[in-house]
Amino acid sequence: MGQNVDAPHLSAGFGEDVFKGAIADKFLKEQGLSAAVLDDPSWVKDVATADKIAKAVLTWCLSKGVTNFCHWFQPMAATFRHGNTGQVQMSMLEFNRDGTTTYELKGKHILFGETDGSSYPNGGMRATHTAGGYLCIDPSSPMFLRDDALFIPACFVSYEGKALDEKTPLHRAHEAMSKQTARLFKHMGFEVAGAVNNIGLEQELFFIPREAYERRMDLQFTGRTVLGKMPARGQEGCDHYMAPINVQGKVMACMKEIQTQCYKLGIPLKTRHREVAPNQYEFAPEFGSVITQTDQNLVVMQICEEVAAKHDLACLLQEKPFAGVNGSGKHNNWSISTLCGAQLLNPGDLTAKSGNPELFPVVMAALVAGVDSYGDLMRLSIASPGNDFRLGAMEAPPSVISTYLGTQMTEYLTEFMNGNVFEYKPSVTPIPLGVDSLPVFNAPAEDRNRTSPFPYGGHRFEFRAVGSTQNVSLVNTVLDSMVAKMFSNISDRIEAGESAVAVAQELLKKHFKAVYNGNGYDPEWPAKADAMGVTRIDSGVEAINKFVDPKNVEMFSSMGVFTPEECAARREILLELYVGTVEMEVGCMIDMINQHAIPSAKAAGINASGLEKGAKECAAAIAKVHATEDAFEQAKLCRVLRLETMVNVRKVVDDVEAACPANLWTMATYKELLFVDTGKHR
Asked: Residues in domain GS catalytic (predicted)?
């Protein structure tokens, strides 16, 4: 137990703006309930209980000066939307016929809502004349307050119940994983009620001077620079990585306020530090339920953007804001535990609680087989537009989907696969430092492998390739669906008369090629992976298209996560997001060339013909996209446009910037954008 230190600016307000625990208990007791009622989601099906909870919530809200409420949901492909979420705020005021007002919040108000869903991406799942969007409270994620509004986490569906959001499929996948875990474990003599997926999200981002940000159309509209010459200093010395945060600078003050706001919402941010690129930082919370952690991460991103503006900064969440320096990811640390607390990826814990040493290798065999069988879906789940610039660029894992297990785990599973079944007991390695006064360090069984997209370590897997701007719902929907399907397949074979161990051994023999413990940055690895049949998809556009592969549609359908129609719709939506992103980026590039680069060049007496030609090339390329009807073909053209045409045009513009006198260049330069809190002059 840690000491209860008196730090009112942090600890005293923790969780005060979230309706759970002691905060909720105080107000629920007035209605004859306790906070325990919120732990059982069945309360949403009892109108009388819902009314009592609503009364307690209303009293809480009024005590905090909150007089509005909304259902808070996660539309699909909301990458550029502030906060990545949707809401319609409603006043709690009721306007009486006698001219008076009263405050009202009933069970029906918090349980359900309805809004116009006509302008949200839907992939053809509804017509314009069927535009309703229906909201249903998510009882697994607590209600919270911001400013003068109550936020009610909710799912968002069409009139026919088709998922129009990111959260509903995540719930479906999580439930499927839970049921299939219980089913498999029962076959192996371990009765459990179900399982829960826990995650921890490392959020990377950039803070830049707001004045310079406001002189960059591309940053404001797209989140990344489409033009810009590298300064004389970048990240060559890695002098920013884990370096001290300037205690007198704007960023430290900004990060402190972000933490304070998050703590009030019960968001357990644990770490803050500089990352490797100039102006790049990271926040990371403790582990928690996949549903609440996803919700909380969306709140964190919104708070970061809003608080940054208060400190004359801009927060950039896009994966690759600056060419030439590292981009940002959002590592998805992922684990599963039973509802009774047995950790599926902790061999000692799972064996001790189940009494069956065969259970852990069966779980690992299912995961290895899942990575090999559904690596294309894992790649799809991280196919955010910004990730095109990161994956395989020596700053993020490659586009080859494999898993790292470490030497000890690999040797153990190899023995198991070959018929030697025994309990896995990983050992630590003592490392003396050669100094008598220093303690001996015990290294864990696995080293870190930051070049692997899905390494095992510390009783969890870490999906390292996730993009920083992403809502991680789809990422975890894929992982949970994959696990559910593999567990289901094993159970099917057990029920047909095979032994779990024999099935697991066969799976490992077939799919062990997905285990790669080497350097993922090795230039020779992608070709080796191709030869072995390991999933490799360099293009995010091609990955998105895998949503409608028959094996993937069957997997999602059989687990009750997506219908075939929903798979096709989400493919369409993700392709449209990619095309729309490139449309904005190329539009910015053309305008910035015409409105800034060409006038600056002419003022400096520099030949602008190359700039004029570049703008015309970009315009012709996007016109070709607009003349194409099929979404997949459009997206393929857009990928060439942004990764080839725009890159070549950028070189021309950046060369002109290098030759142009600084006082005549009207766009904020990398020199102005980077190094916000570095150096004594700041």
From this structure: 166-597
Report the pLDDT averaged over residues 587-593: 98
- pTM for the predicted model, two decimal places: 0.94
Structure tokens at 77: 């492909």
Contact 108, 55 (CB under 8 A): no
Tokens of 116: 């116009």
Of 206, 203, 216, the C-alpha closest to 279 is: 206
DSSP strands (E only) in 87-217: 90-91, 93-95, 101-103, 112-116, 132-137, 144-146, 149-157, 195-209
Q: Would the CA dihedral through 377, 380, 381, 382 be positive or negative?
A: positive
Residue among 255, 271, 243, 260 nearest 207 (CA)? 255
DSSP 3-state percent helix, strand, coil across the chain (nearest 5): 45, 15, 40
624-672 pLDDT tens trace: 999 999 999 999 999 999 999 999 999 999 999 999 999 999 999 999 9
Burial class of 26 by CB neighbour count within 10 A (0 to 12, 13 to 18, 19+): middle
DSSP letter at 558 equals H
> DSSP string spanning 292-334?
HHHHHHHHHHHHHHHHHHHTTEEEE-SS-SSTTS---BEEEEE
Output the DSSP codes for 396-408. Answer: B--SB--EE--HH
Residues 462, 332: Cα–Cα separation, whole Å:
6
Q: Output the pLDDT for position 80.
A: 78
Give the span between the Cα atoms of 461 and 459, in whole angstroms. 7
Q: pLDDT tens digit string along 357-414? A: 999 999 999 999 999 999 999 999 999 888 888 887 667 777 899 999 999 999 999 9
- Rounded Cα distance between 566 and 562, Å, is 5
Backbone angles phi, psi at 108, to 5 degrees: -65, -30
Dihedrals φ, ψ of 151, to 5°? -105, 125
